[in-house]
Write a structure and sequence with these properties.
- The structure is a single chain.
- The protein has a two-stranded antiparallel ribbon.
- The two termini are 23 Å apart.
- α2 (45-100) packs antiparallel against α3 and α2 runs antiparallel to α4.
- The protein is an all-alpha fold.
- The protein is built from 5 helices and 2 strands.
- The chain has helices at 9-34, 45-100, 106-129, 185-238, 242-268, and strands spanning 146-149, 159-162.
């Protein structure tokens, strides 16, 4: 062992060990503060990059869930409108059957026709206002299909589209004309046939809308599960084990205290050289 007042080897080694302990302490404190064992790319570049990619996928899936929710809400409005149209057609059928009776007088047929016209116009009013988020799937100037994205990239290959079901008067579903009347028994009979065909068409259209809504609900449930699975995967990659971090913190704090003590002892060593020069 060399006695030197210029270089204290023991103190240098003690300082090196203390610095390592302090770095470990800083790491553990960061884990406790953030709850993450990989909080930045400096902690583990590869793991951090993988986690960032997965976080981006989760964000994309959140957007997809929002798109599905909007599509479901639009479908809910469309289905409600379609059900209302079906109910109105049933009421219109009752009026048509009554007006078809050759035994009723002119005043009664006129009253039935007035009721029929109000019900007819109500159908048009309903389908024109059945809009959500700017989309009307059952009427209006330009009925539109309902589309939802289903993956994290918004790819057009992974979308669900529910076709529009135009229930406007005089269309292919509701075949009753917008100016239909029942001023005679013959006219009532003809209108009755159109009403019955329209009822069948509307019910079939509602079935298609309902099937689309069911598919969207299934996709929503799957997307939620997929998002949760990715969140768990990210947690497995970057989350800190807090129980382990707590135990490590206590151990490192003890090592820090011992390191400070060792450095203090090493710093006192050069003082022993003075005894060599005392008589």
């Amino acid at each position: 062992m060399t006695f030197s007042v210029n270089t204290n080897e023991g103190a240098l080694k003690a300082l090196q060990n203390l610095n390592k302990t302090n770095m470990k302490l800083q790491t553990v404190q960061t884990q406790i503060n953030t709850g993450l064992k990989v909080a930045s790319t400096k902690d583990n570049a590869a793991t951090w990059a993988i986690a960032q990619i997965l976080r981006a996928d989760v964000s994309g899936l959140n957007a997809a869930r929002g798109s599905i929710d909007r599509a479901l809400s639009t479908l809910d409005v469309a289905v409600s409108a379609g059900e209302a149209v079906s109910d109105l057609l049933i009421e219109m059928k009752e009026k048509a059957v009554a007006a078809k009776d050759p035994g009723i007088d002119s005043a009664s047929r006129t009253a039935l026709n007035n009721d029929f016209v109000q019900l007819r116009d109500q159908i048009q009013a309903i389908v024109r206002t059945a809009e959500f988020n700017g989309i009307n799937a059952v009427g209006g100037p330009s009925p539109a299909a309902i589309t939802a994205i289903t993956d994290s990239t918004g790819s057009s290959d992974n979308q669900i589209t529910v076709a529009a079901q135009d229930m406007s008067l005089g269309g292919t579903i509701v075949t009753v004309a917008s100016d239909a009347t029942m001023t005679s028994a013959a006219e009532a009979s003809s209108t009755l046939n159109l009403i019955e065909a329209s009822l069948d068409n509307v019910n079939a259209a509602l079935s298609r809308l309902g099937a689309g809504a069911k598919r969207l609900e299934l996709q929503k449930a799957f997307t939620a599960k997929l998002s949760d699975a990715l969140e768990v995967g990210i947690g497995n990659l970057v989350d800190a084990d807090m129980a382990k971090a707590s135990a490590t913190l206590q151990a490192v704090q003890v090592k820090q205290q011992l390191g400070l003590q060792a450095l203090s002892i090493a710093n006192q060593a050069p003082g022993s050289i003075i005894s060599l020069f005392q008589g």
